[in-house]
Amino acid sequence: MPRRVKIAAAQLGPIQRADSRESVVARLQALLEEAAAGGSTLVVFPELALTTFFPRWLYQSQDEVDAWFEEEMPGAATRPLFDAAKRLGVGFHLGYAELVREGNQVRRFNTAILVGRDGKLVGKYRKIHLPGTAEPVPGAPYQHLEKRYFDVGDLGFPVWKAFGGVTGMCICNDRRWPETFRVMALKGAELVVLGYNTPDSNIHHPEPVHLRMFHHMLSLQANAYQNGMWIVAAAKAGREDGFGLIGGTCIVAPTGEIAAQALTEGDEVVAYDCDLALGEYIRRTVFDFARHRRIEHYGIITSQTGVKVQTQN
Ligand code: ING
């Protein structure tokens, strides 16, 4: 029995360092309205969708860093987006930098939320796989300092009954790690939504530029198929203050096929009428976890973090 939900991936073009949150929220609202007009009931926005990709720089003070964070969600600048979504009866996924004050402790996360069609918060996820470095890479044309600016997510990989199925979230680099999707699939996820900011060059090792898009799509298509789930991924793309981010916003079916994909590196909505039941046959046959998985042979995956060479000879 099909269970259809029309989902939009709302790609954002570049956000310049000088752009105000208000100007960005106006763009997000325009994308939301375009998606709603096309019949979507869930809109997926990118990672850190309110600001430029600020971890590309080293800052001199913590105040400069904290200016990129939100202490309340919605706050004054983002309230119009929540109001528009509620008015239109459309849910959304939004990535942002979250600052949490608990007593005299401050914690900072690369966070994403899922908001229902009634405008109410369904759930929150905090990015677990933080890429890059805590210290700047000497001589690099730009930095990737997520390990410096964010704490590791402390909410695990939760899933929720939402949008007609079981829905989970992850963020950007999480999509490169199969554990991310397998954990949510083991909890019954049929749909995972995510945003990303992926630089168009590798500061850690020279590699052909086409691999950025190839690895992005490979990660999504493989994980969608191997877990029999829909994956919807929205980019922040284009050149931010001269630094390039890849596009490739897309909707991937549980078969691993690309159902819809963005053509530009600007603000662009791509949508697809996803049948959340499509993955059922995959999870009942080739990836029937209960019938085929042999966890007695997998223990090393959670008992060991890095590589320890241990050959038989
Ligand atoms: N960005 C990149 C991503 O995972 C990256 C970082 C790019 C890591 C390419 C490895 C290879 O898409 C974020 N924000 O995680």
N-to-C SSE string, H for helix and E for strand: EHEHHEEEHEEHEHEEEEEEHHH
Biggest sheet, strands in spatial order? 5-4-3-2-1-14
Please report the total strand number as a whole number: 14
Overall pLDDT: 98
Radius of gyration: 19 Å
> Which consecutive residue ranges, at least 5 long each, have pLDDT under 50?
none
The number of helical runs is 9
- Subunit organisation of the chains: single chain
Bound molecules: D-[(amino)carbonyl]phenylalanine
Question: What's the shape?
Answer: globular
Structure description:
By secondary structure, this protein is α/β, with parallel strands linked by helices. It contains nine helices and 14 strands. The structure holds D-[(amino)carbonyl]phenylalanine (ING). The site of D-[(amino)carbonyl]phenylalanine has 7 residues, from loops.
